[in-house]
């Protein structure tokens, strides 16, 4: 799944899932080192667990962040999979 981010320096998040398990995450744009770290930390994690940890994180005065956008992307992906 390719997710278009909103309100962050990164522009897209690519997510590969196996059921509800996150297999890989990669960001386009943003703070490369931090986003590689986040991506590696969530690999192998259940999407619901990652959402609980990342949702609501803000970047400075912005109402969102790259981790928050990853949570939104995972929620959208889970909703999409349930609709199928």
Description:
It is a single chain. The chain has 84 residues and is α+β, with helices and mostly antiparallel strands. It has three helices and three strands, in the order βββααα. Strand 1 and strand 2 (10-18) form a beta hairpin. It starts with a strand and ends with a helix. GO terms for molecular function: nucleotide binding; ribonucleoside-diphosphate reductase activity, thioredoxin disulfide as acceptor. Residues 2-76 form the TSCPD domain. Its EC number is 1.17.4.1.
What's the N-to-C terminus distance? 14 Å
Please state the structural category.
alpha+beta
Enumerate the spans where pLDDT stays under 50 for 5 or more consecutive residues.
none
Q: How many separate helices?
A: 3
Oligomer: single chain
Task: Give the biggest beta sheet.
Answer: 3 strands, antiparallel
Strand-residue fraction? 25-35%
The helix fraction, in percent, is 40-55%
* Spatial strand order of the main sheet: 1-2-3
The helix-strand sequence is: EEEHHH
Strands, total number: 3
Rg for CA atoms: 12 Å
Q: Tell me the overall shape.
A: globular
Mean pLDDT: 95
SSE topology:
Elements: E1 2-4, E2 10-18, E3 21-29, H1 32-42, H2 47-54, H3 66-83
Antiparallel strand pairs: 1-2, 2-3
Helix pairs in contact: 2-3
List the keywords:
single chain; about 80 residues; 3 strands; globular
């Amino acid at each position: 799944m390719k997710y278009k981010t909103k309100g962050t320096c990164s522009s897209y998040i690519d997510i590969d899932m196996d059921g509800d398990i996150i297999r890989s995450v990669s960001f386009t744009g943003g703070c490369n080192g931090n986003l590689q770290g986040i991506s590696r930390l969530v690999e192998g994690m259940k999407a619901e667990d990652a959402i609980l940890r990342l949702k609501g994180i803000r970047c400075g005065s912005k109402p969102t962040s790259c981790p928050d956008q990853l949570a939104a992307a995972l929620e959208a992906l889970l909703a999409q999979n349930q609709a199928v």
